[in-house]
Amino acid sequence: MSAIAEPVAVPVTDDRLARRNALVLAAAQALAGANATVIFGSAGIIGTVLAPDKAFATVPITTYVVGLWIGTLPVGVIARRFGRLAAFEAGALCGMLGGLVCASGVILGSFALLCLGTAFGGLYAAAHQSYRFAAADTASDSFKAKAISWVLTGGVLAGIFGPQLIILTKDVLPHFLFAASYLAQAVVAIVAGLVLLLVRFPGSAKAAVKGGGGRPLTVLFRQPRLIAAVISGLASYAMMNLMMTSAPVAMIDCNHSVSDAALGLQWHVMAMYAPSFLSGTLIGRFGVGRMIAAGLTTIAASAVVGLTGTSVAHFWLALILLGFGWNLGFIGATAMVTGCHRPEERTRVQSVNDFLIFGSMAIGSFLSGQLLARFGWAMVNEVVLAFVFAAALLSLWLSSLSRRRAAA
Predict the structure, then answer these.
(1) What is each CA distance from 301 to 184, 305, 367, 369, 372, in whole angstroms?
(2) Does the global pTM surpass 0.70?
(3) Which of these, 26, 297, 304, 381, has the minimum number of CB atoms within 10 Å of its CB?
(4) Looking at the structure, do residues 335 and 366 belong to the same domain, yes or no?
C-alpha cells in the first residue's frame, strides 16, 4: 500500500499585504517598545526603595528578562493553535496587567508585586518580539528582509516615546513615584492591542499557522543554514546585551558623568533601530550572508574601540557601532530563519529560535555585571570579540556545508 503524503501548506505571498502589515506592526512595535523603556527607566530606581536589600534593586529588571525568555515558547504555542493575532493580543493583555500590577506594587510598597508586574512586562515583550516574523509571513523572498526591517523601525519611535512617557507621568501621583508611568504603560498596551486588530492574514496563511504538522524539530534543527542563523542571531543579541549592560556602569567607574552614560545609551538605541530604514534594502541587494557578516564585523569593531580607550568618545563610538552591528546581524539572522522552514513549521521554529536567543540574553545580563566587577571593562570587550569571532567562523563553516549539500 502506498504511503499517503502529509499535506503541506502552500506558501501565501502577497507583498502588498506584507507592506501593510509591516507598517501596522511597526506602529504596534513603537507602542510596545515603551513597555521596556518604562521598566528599564524606572524599575531599578523603585527597586532601590522597595527591595529588602539594595543588592536586590535590579531584580525587577531580571524578572523582566526572564519573562521575555520563558514567554517565547508559549507565544509560539498560542500562535500555532489560535493564530498570530491571538498571541499578539495575549501579549498586549500581559502588558496591561504588567502596568497595573507594577503600579499596585509602588502604591502598596510591595517589592514582590513590582517584580510580578515586570515579569508580565517580559511576557509582553516576548509577544512583540515576534512581530518581525509576522511581517514576513506573506512576503516574497525578495521582500522578507525589508518587511522585517520596517517593523524594527518602530524601535526608533519607541526610543523617543518611551522616555517622554516617563518624564510626563513620573510625578503625576506625587507620593508614588512612577506609579502613574506604569498606569500610562497599561493604557498604551491597550492602544497597541487595538492597533494590532488592523493586522490581516489571508485564510490559507491562517490555516498554515494553525494546522500544525511539518517536520520534527530534531530534523529542522539539523539544517546547517538554520543552525547558522540561530548562532548569528544569538551572537548579535547576546553580545550586544552584554556590552550595552556593562557600558553605563563602566563609564561611571571611569569617572564619567551619569549624563554622559545616558547619552551614550541614547545614541546606542538610535544606532540599533535607525538603520532599519535601509538594512532591509541592503540585505536585498547584497544578500543575507554578507549582511550578517557585516553586522558581526561591526560588533567586533565596537569591542576593539572599547579596548583602545576609556574616554567618553571611545564609549560613545563603541556603543554606536554596537547598535549598528546588532541591527544588521539580527535582521539578517531573522531573515535567514524565515527561509529555513515551511509555512506550517514557522511558529515552532521561530519560537525556539527566540527562546535560544533571549535565553542567551538573560545569561548575558547576569554575566555582564560579574565580568565587569571581577575583571573590568577590557575583559567585557575581549569576551565580545572572542565570541563574535568564534560565531562568525562557525556560521561561515555551516553556510558552506549547506551550499555543498544543496549542490550534491
Answers:
(1) 39, 6, 21, 22, 19
(2) yes
(3) 304
(4) yes
